[in-house]
Amino acid sequence: MTPLSTASTAVGTTLLEDFSLEMTGKDVPGLEEARDTIPQGTRINVTFLGNEDLRMRLDAARAVRRLGFVPVPHLSARRLGSHADFEQFLTGLHTDGTSDNVFAVAGDPASPEGPYEDSLSLIESGLLQRHGVRHVGISGYPEGHPAIPGDVLWSVLRDKTAALAAHGLDGGVITQFGFDVGPVLAWIERVRDAGIALPVRVGVPGPAGVRRLMAYAARFGVGTSAAIARKYGLSLTNLMGTAGPDRFLHALAEGYDPARHGEVKIHFYTFGGLRATSEWVAQFRKDHHG
User: Fold this and answer.
1) Is the per-residue pLDDT at 290 higher than 60?
2) Alpha-carbon distance 118 to 104, whole Å?
3) How many alpha carbons lie under 13 Å from residue 87 in its C-beta half-sphere?
């Protein structure tokens, strides 16, 4: 691997300051185990899966806060069965002191289970700020979305950005993960050219089994050709191995220009590996910090 220049080494470690992590409601034991390897105050997104219930989601957000981190509960629009379900979740978060930051997403179901079609409808409901929400994360798709045309993705991103401003809410974008830095940086430039100044967190897969990584990538429609996989540093012949995001982050550090790309941070999709990811980050920063 080509060594980083001194300048890009500094940028690489800067990109990893204030990184965020992702977990599911079932990952609380893993978070307990990883607590000493994760910097206090780290933002931890808590996903909203169909096989989890309200209590599990609230408990997970509460655990994140109790352990000294910042919970970012996901709100999955199409999984909310009714206005009452939405209010009940928000009320629970507010009561627990875990409603400051949320991440709004449409969700996996092809059709809504209730009145909310997409994340824009959650923002425009007016319920978020009434329940103490101050910051809303929204999705970005540098490599597109398997079910949504590109022009629609751009239109929706502009609409959501405008809606956040109209409702007095702070916001940020978290991108779906990819294996190739080029499309990510080009997409961020286009975001800035569109006048969208929201901070962007680039989604990066944490160190996970390659087989699991490829399964997730296929599910999310991320480009996983052999050439892209090699560029990321994955070995398709050694599917039992693990793959860290070293090469991706090196390339991102080389290409990142704050003047063109604005505020950029990293969001790790951990695939259940909270401790493996946080230990990897600590080692990366140690190896590249002077």
Assistant:
1) no
2) 9
3) 7
